[in-house]
Amino acid sequence: MEAIPGYATTKKIEKEGDGPGIAKGNNVTVHATGVVKETGKTFWSTKDPGQQPFSYQAGVGGVITGWDQGCLGMKVGETRLLEIPAHEGYGAAGFPAWGIPPGGTLFFTLECLTIQ
């Protein structure tokens, strides 16, 4: 895992992509799968039946901090694993409705589909 400067979240490129990388303010569409490190349970996946790829504006706080910063630089076709500590994820409260415990560390696998 590689450090993201200024953050506790770390990243690992699992598959290289092509073209320019995601920059702050880009509109991005990704496939995303989130797993709670402590339990090994998947709490969300855009690849599950009935789910759709997720679109958001990168680097502006529209998603949790670890994801928001961890996606920057990704290229179309790239798959990246993020390890996001609680304080850059859902914090001390967690997100019980999704099965994320208080102080839970998250693994997110992101696959960049489009960058605009």
If you had to describe this structure to a student in words, what would you say it looks like?
Keywords: Isomerase, Rotamase. Its EC number is 5.2.1.8. It catalyses: [protein]-peptidylproline (omega=180) = [protein]-peptidylproline (omega=0). GO terms for molecular function: peptidyl-prolyl cis-trans isomerase activity. Pfam families: FKBP_C. The chain has 116 residues and is mainly beta. The protein has one domain: Chitinase A, domain 3 (Roll), CATH 3.10.50. The chain contains 1 helix and 7 strands, in the order βββββαββ. Strands 1, 2, 3, 4, 5, 6 and 7 form a 7-stranded antiparallel β-sheet that branches. A hairpin with a 5-residue loop joins strand 3 and strand 4. The protein starts with a strand and ends with a strand. The relative contact order is 0.31. The model has no long low-confidence stretch (mean pLDDT 97).
Q: How many separate domains?
A: 1
Main sheet, how many strands, which sense, barrel?
7 strands, antiparallel
What radius of gyration results from the CA coordinates?
13 Å
CATH class: Alpha Beta
Q: Mean of residue pLDDT?
A: 97
In terms of structural class, how would the helical and strand content be classed?
A: mainly beta
The share of residues in helices is under 10%
CATH architecture descriptor = Roll
Question: Which helices and strands, and how do they pair?
Answer:
Blueprint: E1 2-3, E2 10-15, E3 27-36, E4 42-45, E5 54-57, H1 65-70, E6 79-84, E7 106-115
Antiparallel strand pairs: 1-2, 2-6, 3-4, 3-5, 3-7, 6-7
EC number: 5.2.1.8
Domain PPIase FKBP-type: 25-116
Region (Disordered): 1-25
